């Protein structure tokens, strides 16, 4: 079976590349891969303490300060996975110079495999979030079975972005330095820390074209509102992701012949 130029042997290589990415990221540290769990838990714990017990921010109509923390993490947890995937994926080709120059394989697998490193952050964030919900007396309904669909769409979108960024980074290394700032701007332009209703009307209109907004709202619809995500939102992100991914794959394959001379 061949899909977009990939076969079952490429799937095995993809899994091996993912393992290598995770292993190399924490190579030499005492805790090793446990850092992939410790880091997001540490960050989410700080958010819980600051917003739940120091500032004590409440959502209108809520009874406890933990409601805002739960609402915040339901959007920020997926964002942690997003930044991890994009940052690792964007530098995946540049960071694998030896492999690209000395091994014959489909280099487009590098950014795709790197994208899935964000899954660890996402899983840890969701477990932390569900623990908070249970601790605060909330309920988890059958709607959580819709999460795999949203997760799949999110990572198709992230793979589409990273396959473009990883190719661009070979030609313009500065993109790797600019990327953290760009992601920070997108974070605060997306209603993750504040409700969508608080945004100016013109920014609301722009947000409808922001896939990160639709992804965050889909998580919140399932986890916070115990509801199904907006069908048009997930269809918009899915169609856009597939178009961008297929186009990016073609561009990547056309340009990768230049990689050897630039790396």
Sequence of secondary-structure elements:
HHHHHHHHHHHH
Q: Output mean pLDDT.
A: 86
Helix content: 55-70%
Q: What class do helices, strands and sheet pairing give?
A: mainly alpha
Radius of gyration, taken over Cα atoms and rounded to an integer in Å: 19 Å
Describe this protein with a few key phrases.
mainly alpha, 12 helices, globular
Question: Would you write up a description of this structure?
Answer:
The structure is a single chain. The protein is mainly alpha-helical and 263 residues long. It has one domain (8-262). 70% of the residues lie in helices and 0% in strands. It has helices at residues 8-25, 35-54, 66-90, 97-102, 109-115, 118-135, 147-171, 174-189, 201-207, 211-223, 231-255, 259-262.
Summarize this entry quickly.
The protein is built from twelve helices and no strands. With 263 residues, the protein is mainly α. It has one domain.
